[in-house]
Structures are given as C-alpha cells and as structure tokens.
Specification:
Elements (H helix, E strand, L loop, with lengths): L30 E11 L5 E14 L7 E14 L2 E2 L5 E5 L8 H4 L6 E3 L15 E3 L9 E5 L21 H18 L7 E6 L2 H13 L10 E5 L5 H4 L7 H16 L10 H22 L5 H15 L3 H6 L6 H7 L6 E3 L7 E3 L8 H21 L43 H11 L4 E7 L7 H9 L8 E6 L9 H19 L1
Parallel strand pairs: 5-8, 5-9, 9-10, 10-13, 13-14
Antiparallel strand pairs: 1-2, 2-3, 3-4, 3-8, 6-7, 11-12
Length: 508
C-alpha cells in the first residue's frame, strides 16, 4: 500500500516471473503504480472520502493464449467508508474514442472527483495556466469509477514482441477491454458489483461490442446493468455525410438549426435552443426527408419552398441550398455560416469560432480544449505520486487507415477479422440491441451536446429509433454543449445529475 501522499509502489514481487516484457522493458504484470486517499466536498456539503489508484492491468493475447499482449492503464476512484471500500457498490467503467486515445478527457470531466476548470468565456483562447477543480457533483456519490485507456495509451504498453498493427481491429479492441475489465473486477473483489459502461465517440462503437464480449468472456460472463453512449458513432455508417445520402442531411438539420440560432443567424423564433431542436426534428423527419427522397423528381416549387424553410433554420441562403440539391454537409456548414465574417465554426463544438485561415481548416473548439487536457493530465497524475518522467502516451497517432471495422456477426458478409469493403455492414447497434434484450433490466442512456458537428442529435434519434427495445429501457439527454459536453460547466453538472438518476433508476 502507499501512504496518504501517494508514494509509488508495485505488486510485481507478488507476481510469478514472466518472460513477457513491454516495449519499455517492464514486465507485463499487475502493477499498482500509484495510490492515494483523498476527499471531495459534494453538493450537499458533506465530505466524500475516496481512494484513487493507477493500475497497470495485464491483458491476455487471446482466449486461448494467457500470455500478456500488454498492460492496460486503469485509473480507479473508489469511495471509502471508515477507510474501507464497499465491494457491493456499482462500478462505472469509462473510455474515450479515437479509436485509440487515452481517456484523459473523461478522467478530468467532473464525472469523477475533479474536472478541468474550463473558462465559461468561449472567446478565450487556449492559453495557460490550466487548472483542475473539485467536482462537487461527481457520480462517485453513487458508484465507483474506472477510467480505462486502450493498450498503448496512458501508461500501458504492448509487449515488445507484439505486432501492434495486427491488433487494430474493432473486435480485438473490445476483447482487450473486456479482458482488462474482468481482470480488474476479479483482482479487486468487485466481480459481483453491478457494472455500467460509458463510451464516448468511438467509445460508443466499443461499448456495444464490449458489452457482448463481457457476456461471452471465457473466465465467466459479466452482464452489464446499463450503457451510456456519449456522442454516439454507433450508427455512423447510416448518418455519415455522403454526397448523395438521404438520411445524413436530415439527421444533421437539428445541429445546423441549433448552431445558427446560437450565432444569431436563425429565422426561427424560440425561447431556447430546445424549441429550435424540436422544430428542426419535426421538419427533418417530414417535408425535408420527403424532398430528399424525391430528389430531382421533387417539383420545383416544392424544392424552393423547402429551401426557403432550410434558410430559416440554418441561416444559409435558399439559393445555396438549391444549388447544393438541398444537401449541405456539416463540414460545409461550418465554413459557410460565418463566411461573411471570415470565420469558421468548431468541429467538436460549433459555439466556438475562429478566423478562417487560407488553405487551412482550423478547429477552434479542439484548439481551445486539447492543450488544457494534456497539461492537467500530467498535473493530476503527478499529484497522485506518478513520476513525471514515467512515459505516458496520449495517442499513438492516426490509426484510422489501419483499423479493421469488422464485427463478424450478425450481419457481416465476410468472416470476422477480414477487412471490409464499403458495401459491408458494421452492425454495432445489433450488439447493443442484443444486450438490451438479453440482459434483464439492462438500460441505455444516449447523451449529446446539441452543438456537436461530429455526432449529432439527429443521428442519436435515428440510433434509438432503429432498435426494437421498450421505451422504458432508453433515456436520451441533450445538453447545451458540444462533443465533450462536460467542457461546459452547466452541462457538466446536469450530466452528472442525469447519470446518477440513470444509475439509481436502473438499480431500483
């Protein structure tokens, strides 16, 4: 164990000798890197004691090969009562996307006991010093929290003899997370705890596949209690912007309408952005979708009527909509809305804008957020007692060109592990629907920021509508923020309150 100041220690001496070493030479064994006890004052004014631990968790190479493929970096927050952990408390396992990036943004989101103190002034640029603050509304009041990094991110590494690129597959990624989670639950005596999983961005592809992998885990099935999808890419194949798509532009209208209203470019009269979104949803699913379906067969007077209405919603002129065949992509919208002002909108949060640079496509929301995340992560782990010179990786780089998206079952037309063509299906939603229907009481919460241009409210609407589940199994929440809803202070608090309500209702 460590002292209260978080002195580093390891469990390597307790492990059997292993010939398998990570790329940095460390053995691939269970290792407690740092640990400390701390206290946060929560919303009701009481003090919540908790233990935070950074653990390197070994992950097997396959179901048949118990040698470690590497170690997964896992940061845990567990509530203490009289200095002890209650092994019966629920566990919320969280991860970001990438597909392969560290889960730093969720770590410091305020879902746990601390958050990055982002400025409420959206015009403030990315300039330090950056600081952490306590999260009084943390969900640690109701469940313990795991923040899991993919192998190769955070402080985890692959074994030195592993061909990493061969591991860049959706199914292998889910298998690794399942193995890491089961190992952590088993080693810490939490295997009987109710388990919730929260995935953000690509994590919403991982989450359904992980839920199914947990049900099929060879060391013993784990049936999750619920899933939270934050910024869902689960059905990205259906709603991704494509030149002649019908569903994608209809799914994007609520995002465009909300953004235009925020920047004062909308012709819609509304008291708040929720009213704008509801009006856009209704129009998108009716007259707009019908006109898109008709295409060139849509009568000219009807096309002009639709274009005029789209101008009211989006602030983009009716003539531009007509010239674009009533289909303007989200990326084009980012460049067009404030073009007369020489500005471009943020990708992850369209409330942000920046000067449009010639020959460049800046993302003002990412430029504002990313430096703070990296700096605060280093400070957070240093405060735990992790040496600053211990290698830590935020992301191994762009893995998209090498990623194998196949899921193998139920709808794929080729074998699992075979790289896909654009004509094959990636039915991640099927894995989610399977768990919702096969696990008694399992529930789903879908979370969106209404100014997120990557994963839109309309896409989430389509995802929920595509599943044959009961209404009481699904909750949808929309916040006045972007892709990382917790970067907005008010949204972060409401998100945590909603997560607590979801967990309580599921376990009731």
């Amino acid at each position: 164990m460590t002292d209260k100041d978080g002195v580093c220690f390891t469990d390597e001496a307790k492990e059997p000798k292993s010939a398998v070493a990570a790329a940095d030479g460390r053995p691939c064994v269970w290792r407690t890197v740092a640990q400390r006890d701390a206290t946060v004052t929560v919303t009701d004014g009481s003090a919540l004691d908790y233990r935070e631990t950074l653990t390197l968790v070994p992950v097997r190479r396959s179901d048949a090969d118990a040698r470690p493929v590497g170690t997964m970096s896992v940061t845990s927050f567990e509530k203490l009562a009289d200095g002890r952990i209650d092994a019966r408390r629920p566990v919320l396992a969280m991860f970001n996307g990438g597909p392969i990036v560290a889960s730093t943004a969720l770590l410091l989101s305020g879902i746990g006991p601390c958050r990055i103190a982002f400025s409420d002034d959206l015009d403030v640029g990315a300039r330090g010093p950056f600081a952490l603050e306590d999260s009084a509304h943390t969900v640690l009041t109701d469940c313990d929290i795991l923040v899991m990094d993919p192998i190769g991110c955070g402080y985890g590494t692959y074994a030195a003899d592993v061909d990493v690129k061969e591991r860049y597959t959706a199914l292998e990624d889910a298998r690794q997370f399942a193995d890491g989670l089961v190992t952590w639950l088993t080693r810490t005596g939490r295997i009987g705890s109710p388990v919730f999983i929260l995935g953000e961005s690509y994590g919403t592809v991982r989450a359904p596949l992980l839920a199914r992998a947990l049900l099929e885990h060879p060391q013993g099935a784990v049936a999750i209690s619920g899933t939270i999808l934050m910024g869902a890419t689960t059905n990205i194949q259906e709603v991704h912007d494509r030149l002649r798509s019908i569903v994608a532009p209809a799914a994007s209208l609520s995002l465009m309408a909300a953004t235009a209203w925020y920047h004062g470019k909308s012709g819609i009269e509304a008291d708040d952005v929720a009213q704008v979104i509801d009006a856009a949803r209704e129009y998108a699913q009716g007259p707009y979708l019908r006109a898109l379906w008709q295409g060139s067969r849509c009568p000219q007077d009807e096309r002009e009527k639709v274009a005029a209405r789209l101008e009211e919603f989006t602030g983009i002129g009716a003539g531009e909509w007509l010239r674009s065949r009533l289909n303007i992509s989200k990326n084009e919208f980012r460049a067009r809305l404030l073009r007369d002002e020489g500005r471009v909108l943020g990708v992850y949060d369209a409330r942000y804008s920046a000067k449009a640079e010639f020959g460049q496509d800046p993302d003002p929301s990412d430029l504002r957020i990313s430096p703070a995340i990296h700096a605060c992560a280093m400070d957070f782990y240093a405060s735990m007692g992790v040496p600053r010179d211990l290698p830590r990786t935020e992301s191994p780089g762009d893995v998209w060109p090498q990623w194998d998206w196949s899921v193998g079952d139920p709808s794929d037309s080729v074998a699992a592990g075979t790289r896909k063509s654009p004509f094959d299906e990636f039915d991640y939603t099927g894995a989610l629907e399977y768990c919702l229907t096969q696990i008694d009481g399992c529930r789903l919460m879908v979370v969106n920021g209404c100014y997120d241009t990557i994963t839109t409210v309309g896409a989430a609407d389509a995802l929920i509508a595509s599943m044959d589940v009961t209404a009481d199994q699904v909750e949808q929440r929309i916040y006045p923020a972007g892709h990382m809803t917790y970067t907005d202070r008010a949204s972060a608090r409401q998100l945590d309150d909603d997560l607590v309500s979801f967990i309580r209702a599921t376990l009731r």
